[in-house]
Structure prediction request, 483 residues.
Amino acid sequence: MDITFQFDWQAAFASIPYLLKGIPYTLLISFGGLAIGFVIGIVFGLLRISPVFWLRWPAIAYIEIFRGTPVLVQVLFIFYGLPQLLGGPIDAVSAGIAAIAVNSGAYISEVVRGGVQSIERGQREAGLSLGLSQIKTFRYVIWPQAFRRMIPALGNQGIISIKDTSLFAVIGVGELVRQGQIYIATTFRALEVYLMVALLYLVITLTLSLALRMLERKGLVGQ
Amino acid sequence: MKRTAAMKTDPTAEPIVRMEKLNKHFGQLHVLKDIDLTVAPGEVVVIIGASGSGKSTLIRCINGLEEFQQGHLDVDGKVLKPHGKASKTLQQIRTEVGMVFQQFNLFPHLSVLDNVTLAPRKVRHASRDEARQTAERLLERVGIADQAHKYPAQLSGGQQQRVALARALAMEPRLMLFDEPTSALDPEMIGEVLDAMRELARDGMTMVIVTHEMNFAREVADRVIYIHQGEIIEQGTPDEVFDNPQNERTQSFLSRVLTH
Prediction:
């Protein structure tokens, strides 16, 4: 049997310029989706701890549904399913952003809930006893402390969502994996190209990790 | 020098706190039973009693951190209703009533100065400079002016509690509540906090204090209240309550806390 396969570095490097074209899509879908997911997370995370049953209940339903189903199914549903309902097509990038938004939003809701609930009761009581309203107590006392505690978990979710966008090759978004697949189709260099794809994901996620570590260190002041 | 209630309080003035037949339950537990309590302007009332007797719950009702189920309560002329949830009235009361907690509850993400200026700026809409001047004056008064730019975690317990006192005073309250202000402190730091409170009492602040510091109670109180299982069992001047308690449960409590 012939096992003289040679790893072709030249082919690997040659794929990079082509793969780089996928990065703007990967970043746009990840960070666009995460930004919306963060807003969803704040709103639903707070509704989730509301004492009012009719506010809490829809938040629980949302979180359970979108945390309990695969993001791949969610994007297929949005891209192929929703147009049948709406009567018009949805472009693949928008569908990807929407899928990351609703999926990360569910997880971030739980991160927000955990962060807010971790703040000692006495903080709220001190704010209220000074005459701050409920809202001002939240804004100036609870939230800044909760947000600091949420940073590691938010970073986790960011990295997970960036990697989730790789699944969106199936709906034809020209992101990193999709670009790799197209390149392999003409060169047959799967090993080299997927290795480069993996390395490019690593560059993105390591950069994010580093940025978060710096943010956390800055946040340590005064704790 | 010790003043009596009559010297500094005006019996004809409207009381700052008026509680009538106040009852509170935690589920099955009847925590406060038919509490009648009035506090006159300028008066220093010290509440004593065993752990779990309801004394902390009692003062937490005054600024609405605990709700009650039956009875009447008005604070600074504003009525707090039973089952009272968040309301404008409650918030108005809280701007006039300061509180110092057992665990200090300073805001760890804010500097000492920002801890003290937050409420004046966000509630009273004081300017940054105005709030800072007030804060510096108050920090000076409690002896920590030089720590203004530190964060709470960098201070000792005694210093933190004095910051908490300055933070409450920055709202210029008409009444100060103290919920076991020295119970979480190392023994060597209790004195500095009590000194600051003593000075406040001397300046005529109306105070309701829950404490286990019996010597301090005897010294600053105009009136001492002994509470047992949610009931006011005995009250009077410090001399009356400490030297000549009438009720046997008061006698037994005092014999336990005064002997060591």
Observations:
- Chain B is about 40% helix and 25% strand.
- The two ends of chain B are 26 Å apart (CA to CA).
